[in-house]
């Protein structure tokens, strides 16, 4: 075997090279680790002004609904800070815009529980007084409390009112019967007695 035949056998054919090149191009790439980049959440400890601006924008948004209002309030009162005056004002304005009076009352209640000293809460109320008076917001303690009344008490009161009403009707019927007896002759005494018996019977039926 000459050298030319040996070189021809060892050299790859053009078809084989073309198949190998196609295989290399269609090879699946190895999976790579995907790392999702999240922006750091704002916090009052790291960026106070940015945190205030974020929530002021949230409560002032025209797309704000009841769910987003409640969610925002839960987040700002759960954070390690006392909400700024501007954020409270925007939150109260949002409550008025959404016509949710109970939420506005709860904001003041949550603010009172959030401050460290009662004097700080009084300072908030003093600064918020014009807005509170304008919107008609009151504190929870100004709404009063409801005393639980047993059903028996209500039933007893209703029974007493019914008895008083029946007694008035009984007295009125007796007066009418007395006036009629003075005008009637002696022959009309029997109907008068019948009316009197009917009235007394009705009065006895109303007694407990």
TrEMBL record:
Keyword Hydrolase: no
Chain segments annotated as transmembrane: none
Pathway: Energy metabolism; oxidative phosphorylation
InterPro entries: Cyt_c_oxidase_su5A/6, Cyt_c_oxidase_su5A/6_sf
GO CC terms: mitochondrial inner membrane; respiratory chain complex IV
Chain intervals for the UniProt region annotation (Disordered): 157-208
Keywords: Heme, Iron, Membrane, Metal-binding, Mitochondrion, Mitochondrion inner membrane, Transit peptide
Gene3D superfamilies named in the record: Cytochrome c oxidase, subunit Va/VI
Localization: Mitochondrion inner membrane
Bias (Basic and acidic residues): 195-208
Family assignment from sequence similarity: Belongs to the cytochrome c oxidase subunit 5A family.
Biological function: Component of the cytochrome c oxidase, the last enzyme in the mitochondrial electron transport chain which drives oxidative phosphorylation. The respiratory chain contains 3 multisubunit complexes succinate dehydrogenase (complex II, CII), ubiquinol-cytochrome c oxidoreductase (cytochrome b-c1 complex, complex III, CIII) and cytochrome c oxidase (complex IV, CIV), that cooperate to transfer electrons derived from NADH and succinate to molecular oxygen, creating an electrochemical gradient over the inner membrane that drives transmembrane transport and the ATP synthase.
Name under which the protein is recorded: Cytochrome c oxidase subunit 6, mitochondrial
Organism this protein belongs to: Synchytrium microbalum
């Amino acid at each position: 075997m000459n050298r030319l035949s040996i070189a021809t056998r060892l050299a790859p054919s053009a078809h084989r090279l073309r198949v190998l090149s196609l295989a290399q191009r269609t090879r699946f790439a190895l999976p790579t680790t995907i790392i999702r980049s999240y922006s750091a959440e704002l916090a009052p400890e790291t960026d106070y002004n940015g945190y205030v601006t974020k929530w002021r924008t949230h409560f002032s948004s025209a797309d704000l609904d009841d769910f987003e209002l409640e969610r925002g309030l839960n987040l700002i009162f759960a954070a390690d800070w006392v909400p700024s005056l501007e954020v409270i004002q925007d939150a109260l304005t949002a409550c008025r815009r959404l016509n949710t009076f109970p939420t506005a009352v709860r904001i003041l209640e949550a603010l009172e529980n959030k401050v460290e000293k009662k004097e700080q809460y009084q300072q908030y109320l003093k600064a918020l007084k014009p807005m509170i008076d304008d919107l008609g917001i009151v504190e929870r303690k100004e709404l009063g409390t409801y005393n639980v009344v047993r059903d028996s008490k209500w039933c007893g009161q209703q029974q007493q009112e019914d008895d008083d009403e029946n007694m008035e009707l009984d007295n009125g019927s007796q007066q009418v019967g007395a006036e009629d007896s003075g005008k009637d002759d002696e022959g009309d005494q029997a109907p008068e007695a019948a009316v009197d018996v009917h009235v007394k019977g009705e009065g006895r039926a109303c007694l407990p």
